[in-house]
């Protein structure tokens, strides 16, 4: 777009050529200058266009990442963040024997599984249903996306009330069928289930729409020939839809895993405290990082946790890549 | 600022010709870059306005009530050259780390900064050199304040980093209707006599209450409230006078912990965590009979218990005088308007203003001279059956012990409550397990 406009029209060049030599030369120089500018333009403009992203990334992504890495090798107190005392890898080695860290890692993993697996399965089912010819399909598609549009805080506060011990609606409903009150927040599994429920509620619709988009790209002939071969709806789903969705499923697994590793807002607001319950029974890595940095004022330790989380994510990424490669090969 | 001006020029360029997209992109990048840089610039401070007025900024957390009580307006009228601007952060958990950051960067500080009592020891120990010595400010009379309050803001070198604003002498708020049904006296004097002088008598009253307790009610909200009240009534809590961490062996912690365990054991607690949603709902439903309450909690109870609880609540003296909460005003050194800020801080914390603030916002004065002023002396609380709160709480305030504070007081207290007691009370663990879990966490925090 830029290039075609800065380039003078060829016709215009032809008409400027005949007159006096001096003028022609000037015109020629102008044209050459224009061309040079054009080349320069074409070459560097794209960089200028993407520069804002990289500037922002450098300032708010890369720099904090590196600085956190640097801080993780020091003892840094929130009292005097500019004063750093070199401690080498001590912040990392102490993590190895830190029960709170392993507890948080375990919780992050179990909450991650509890939330991601049902979330994606339900999303797949929902997408399959939405893929049928439906009256008012747009309405349903928007409807499944609404939880995604709610803020974490609002959703979590509502869920915390639903899961309340004395006056929660879920316990009230359980009471109707004769089941005793469950102290959701204080049990390990119950609290993790509750936190997972918030995540599932918020993200199922979003993933369903991604699956739906991928499903609609599956060629219709495949279903027709499957139907001709006598495949039932379920068999079509299993043998046509799911295999065609493989790359999409992989993508959602990766995105959900990253989200699960960084889980923070839901467990923080669910109990309203950075400890993640009286026994840290639902304290995630993100929450533990927050506690170390902003309540214990140990920024060095918090940085080490942040980097441990990064390393975990890289490991998960690698694992995912290996699986993707194997899946590609088997095909 | 610089950013807006640059946006203006690029804007003009785009008008001249759409083919000029490259400079536009470069300009945009420059603007964004400049934006990033200017984002780091200081904008929290104060300045002289165009009309020659000096603007003083006051950094606070939560609702301090100066604005609501009209004290800023009053000061501005008395000093026409001054304009006051309050920067409020909702939670101290966010406010305090930001304050520390601004202190170490020496930028973004307000002319006056409030500090909570749980943080004052840390601030006066680690950052005393960054604050003006309030003891030397003009018009400050040490004898106006309660001694223990004055001493809390004293740095090891003798400098005073902050002037006391409010305090939180504790009483016990109780439901008369529930007391009556349980066969206990309802008159506030008699109720106070039930447990006067000893927190264990409070637990004994609870045992009596539970024998005839109205169905579905508990004697107190949670064991942590009891622990908090009991432990604060000792002269030594978590730190010894020479600044050593002694919480594992301190008599205050051991006795208060044991009392809390006894309360849990006899099932007289509502198993509630204070300031949780469930706690609020329990107020509305009237499911516990007592709660340890400083003056600042009265408004909270009124709001949560609502009309349904009207005429049922009253307030009696606590077994022993103890303090919960309160704040200080500090003036960071090197501000543009240090002198004016000092004057304002002195004025805001003077006994007359503290009394006004109590009348309008129920922040209890830390200036003992204010207790003789009619705003405090004759104060009654309508919701609590016209309880003479001025009298009840000033008596408590005068008996509060001077307790050495330490840098990690707050985190030790919340860890013992929210981990230790909570594990026993709500998760069914043994007292030993609860205590060990709390100690493990505290050790992790205080370890270097």
From TrEMBL, chain B:
Source organism, top-level taxon: Bacteria
Q: Which InterPro entries match?
A: Bact_solute-bd_prot1 (IPR050490), SBP (IPR006059)
> What SUPFAM superfamilies is this protein classified in?
Periplasmic binding protein-like II
PANTHER family in the cross-refs: ARABINOSE-BINDING PROTEIN-RELATED, SUGAR BINDING SECRETED PROTEIN
Recorded protein name is Carbohydrate ABC transporter substrate-binding protein
């Amino acid at each position: 777009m830029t290039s075609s406009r800065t380039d003078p029209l060829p016709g215009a060049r032809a008409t400027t050529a005949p007159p006096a030599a001096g003028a022609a030369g000037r015109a020629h120089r102008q044209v050459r200058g224009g061309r040079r500018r054009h080349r320069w333009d074409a070459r560097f403009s794209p960089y200028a266009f993407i520069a804002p992203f990289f500037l922002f990334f450098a300032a708010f992504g890369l720099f904090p990442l590196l600085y956190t890495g640097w801080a993780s090798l020091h003892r840094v107190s929130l009292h005097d963040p500019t004063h750093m005392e070199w401690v080498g890898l001590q912040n990392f080695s102490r993590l190895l024997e830190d029960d709170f860290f392993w507890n948080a890692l375990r919780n992050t993993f179990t909450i991650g599984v509890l939330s991601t697996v049902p979330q994606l399965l339900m999303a797949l089912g929902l997408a399959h249903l939405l893929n049928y010819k439906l009256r008012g399909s747009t309405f349903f598609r928007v409807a499944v996306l609404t939880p995604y549009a709610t803020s974490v805080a609002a959703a979590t506060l509502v869920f915390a009330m639903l899961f309340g011990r004395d006056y929660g609606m879920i316990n009230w409903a359980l009471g109707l069928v004769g089941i005793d009150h469950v102290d959701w927040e204080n049990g390990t599994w119950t609290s993790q289930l509750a936190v997972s429920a918030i995540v599932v509620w918020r993200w199922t619709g979003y993933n369903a729409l991604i699956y739906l988009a991928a499903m609609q790209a599956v060629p219709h002939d495949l279903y027709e020939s499957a139907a001709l071969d006598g495949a039932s709806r379920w068999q079509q789903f299993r043998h046509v839809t799911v295999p065609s969705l493989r790359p999409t499923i992989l993508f959602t697994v990766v995105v959900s895993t990253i989200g699960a590793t960084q889980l923070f807002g839901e467990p923080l607001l669910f109990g309203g405290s950075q400890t993640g319950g009286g026994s840290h029974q639902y304290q995630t890595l993100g929450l533990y990082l927050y506690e170390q940095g902003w309540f214990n004022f140990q920024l060095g330790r918090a940085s080490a946790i942040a980097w441990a989380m990064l390393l975990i994510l890289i490991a998960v990424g690698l694992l995912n890549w290996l699986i993707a490669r194997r899946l590609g090969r088997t095909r | 600022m610089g950013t807006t001006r640059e946006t203006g020029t690029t804007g003009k360029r785009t008008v001249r010709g759409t083919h000029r997209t490259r400079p536009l992109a470069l300009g945009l990048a420059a603007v964004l870059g400049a934006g990033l840089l200017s984002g780091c610039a200081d904008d929290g401070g104060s300045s002289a306005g165009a009309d020659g007025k000096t603007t003083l900024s006051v950094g606070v957390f939560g609702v301090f009530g100066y604005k609501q009580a009209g004290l800023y307006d009053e000061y501005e009228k008395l000093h026409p050259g001054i304009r006051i601007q309050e920067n409020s952060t909702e939670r101290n958990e966010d406010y305090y780390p930001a304050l520390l950051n601004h202190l170490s960067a020496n930028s973004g500080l307000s002319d006056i900064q409030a500090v909570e009592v749980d943080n004052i020891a840390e601030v006066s120990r680690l950052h005393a050199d960054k604050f003006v010595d309030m003891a030397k400010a003009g018009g400050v009379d040490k004898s106006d304040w309660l001694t223990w309050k004055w001493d809390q803001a004293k740095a090891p070198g003798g400098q005073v980093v902050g002037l006391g604003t409010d305090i939180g002498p504790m009483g016990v708020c109780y439901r008369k209707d529930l007391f009556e049904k349980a066969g206990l006296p309802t008159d506030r004097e008699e109720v106070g006599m039930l447990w006067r002088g000893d927190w264990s008598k409070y637990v004994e009253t609870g045992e009596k209450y539970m024998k005839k307790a109205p169905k579905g009610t508990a004697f107190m909200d949670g064991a942590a409230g009891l622990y908090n009240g009991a432990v604060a009534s000792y002269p030594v809590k978590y730190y010894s006078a020479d600044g050593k961490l002694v919480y594992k062996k301190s008599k205050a912690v051991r006795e208060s912990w044991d009392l809390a365990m006894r309360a849990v054991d006899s099932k007289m607690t509502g198993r509630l965590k204070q300031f949780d949603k469930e706690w609020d709902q329990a107020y509305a439903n009237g499911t516990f009979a007592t709660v340890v309450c400083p003056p600042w909690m009265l408004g909270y109870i009124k709001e949560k218990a609502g009309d349904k609880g009207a005429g049922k609540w009253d307030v009696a003296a606590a077994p022993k005088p103890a303090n919960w909460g309160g704040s200080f005003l500090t003036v960071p050194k090197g501000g543009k308007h240090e002198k004016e800020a000092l004057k304002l801080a002195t004025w805001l914390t003077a006994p007359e203003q503290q009394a006004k603030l109590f009348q309008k916002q129920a922040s209890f004065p830390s200036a003992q001279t204010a207790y003789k002023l009619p705003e405090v002396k004759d104060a009654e609380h309508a919701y609590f059956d016209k309880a003479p709160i001025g009298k009840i709480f000033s008596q408590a305030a005068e008996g509060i012990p001077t307790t050495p504070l330490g840098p990690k007081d707050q985190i030790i207290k919340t860890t013992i409550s929210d981990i230790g007691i909570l594990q026993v009370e709500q998760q069914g663990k043994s007292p030993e397990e609860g205590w060990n879990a709390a100690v493990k966490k505290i050790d992790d925090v205080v370890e270097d």
